[in-house]
Design a protein that fits this description.
alpha/beta; 10 strands; globular; disordered C terminus; binds zinc ion; 41% helix; Nucleotidyltransferase, domain 5; 364 residues; binds 5'-O-[(R)-(carboxyoxy)(hydroxy)phosphoryl]adenosine; 5-stranded mixed β-sheet
């Protein structure tokens, strides 16, 4: 058994300044002692997307207070910590540098081990922040504003990519289509609310990458078709129906590719574990969750998703990823650098330079 870890997590890779304290018990159980997320949505909203300069400045202004609040709410002092975990990428590098530097300063001043966490690894472990215990290995669908990938996760730091988007991420598609429907940023939750009660069959949208046997995703054709339809809408009911059709199309594609990945896994390893996990901001969408759960059940896979608060960016997932690494005997030096791009599966990225997983930029 590994010792207990109480880790301060820091997340500043996009437009949320977040800090959290998570305890990983010796038996592997997880307790979130605090999780504070300060959203910058109001600052970016007038621009319809995240402005990197504004984000970095806002992180600088709030990080110290957010960390103090997380420690206060957890009832843990700096002396009670056993490690510090900060997102080191992928993301908007100015913001990443703010959080990583803050983490390094705490590690240096308090003589604590530092973990420079890959943001995607944070999402990968986020389903474990709920009551459930999820063992490795598992099939992971990571769907956020910057990423859309299917991965086989065998253990801490061991992810192999099975498929990824060839154009936009799923959250990006939600955001861009929401914009054409006149919805405010961030568009995903707004589009979900508009789609409520809508008739998803009134509009026909293209099904993407039909006939392809891989597990890659594409949303650009859907985006173009939806934008064209949005131009001709006159009534609120039509907007609602288009939102419902878009949500159904995105959920459908995510379900179809996940289904394919599950079937391929069962074929390759008939006796292997069948666990399916979805994570990232888009996992907060109820229609998406329901479709994925149905597909998992059909294939005999267990289905896990993070509690809603831990789908979108937060620092509890970063703290837990750090604690998992510390428990596995891994940590980083104070030389760790901020990385704008950092694929979870580095081998696949090197072999396939046209695919750029791990890229996360302005979501406008
Ligand atoms: O994981 P996340 O907070 O940030 C990234 O790492 O990218 O994901 C944010 C994305 C945004 O594109 C947002 O529109 C989308 O997740 N999102 C949703 C919902 N909640 C957040 N998309 C659809 N339905 C939702 N309820
Ligand atoms: Zn994220």
């Amino acid at each position: 058994m590994t010792p207990e870890h109480t880790v301060l997590g820091i997340e500043t890779s996009c437009d949320e300044t977040a800090a959290a304290v998570v305890r990983r018990r010796a038996d592997g159980g997880v307790e979130v002692l605090s999780s504070v997320v300060a959203s910058q949505v109001a600052e970016h909203a007038p621009f319809g997307g995240v402005v990197p300069e504004i984000a970095a400045r806002a992180h600088v202004e709030t990080i110290e207070a957010i960390v103090e609040r997380a420690l206060g709410e957890a009832g843990v002092s700096y002396g009670g910590l056993t490690g510090v975990a900060a997102t080191a990428g992928p993301g908007l590098v100015g913001g990443v540098m703010v959080g990583l530097s803050f983490g390094k300063a705490v590690a240096l001043a308090r003589d604590l081990p530092l973990v420079a966490v890959n943001h995607l690894e944070g999402h990968a472990v986020s389903a474990r922040l709920g009551a459930e215990r999820i063992d490795y290995p598992f099939l992971l669908l990571l769907v956020s504003g910057g990423h859309c990938q299917l991965l086989h996760v065998a253990g801490v730091g061991e992810a192999r990519r099975i498929g990824s988007t060839i154009d936009d991420a799923a959250g990006e598609a939600f955001d861009k289509i929401a914009k054409t429907l006149g919805l405010p940023y961030p568009g995903g939750p707004a589009l979900e609310a508009l789609a409520e009660g809508g008739d998803a069959t009134r509009f026909t949208l293209p099904r993407m990458l039909l006939g392809r046997k891989d597990c890659d995703f594409s949303f650009s054709g859907l985006k173009t078709a939806a934008a064209r339809l949005a131009e001709g809408l006159t009534t609120e009911a039509e907007r609602r129906d288009l939102a419902a059709a878009v949500q159904k199309a995105i959920a459908g594609q995510l379900a179809e590719k996940s289904d394919r990945a599950m079937k391929a896994q069962v074929q390759a390893h008939p006796k292997g574990a069948r666990r399916f996990v979805v994570a990232g901001g888009v996992a907060a969408n109820r229609a998406v969750r329901a479709r994925l759960q149905a597909v998992a059940e059909m294939n005999g896979f267990s289905f896990s998703a993070p509690p809603l608060a831990y789908c979108t960016d937060n620092a509890a997932m970063i703290a837990l990823a750090g604690a998992e690494r510390l428990a596995a005997g891994l940590s980083d030096t104070l030389d760790a650098v901020a990385r704008p791009r950092w694929p979870l599966d580095e081998a696949a990225a090197a072999a396939s330079p046209t695919h750029l997983p791990g890229r996360k930029g302005a979501k406008a």
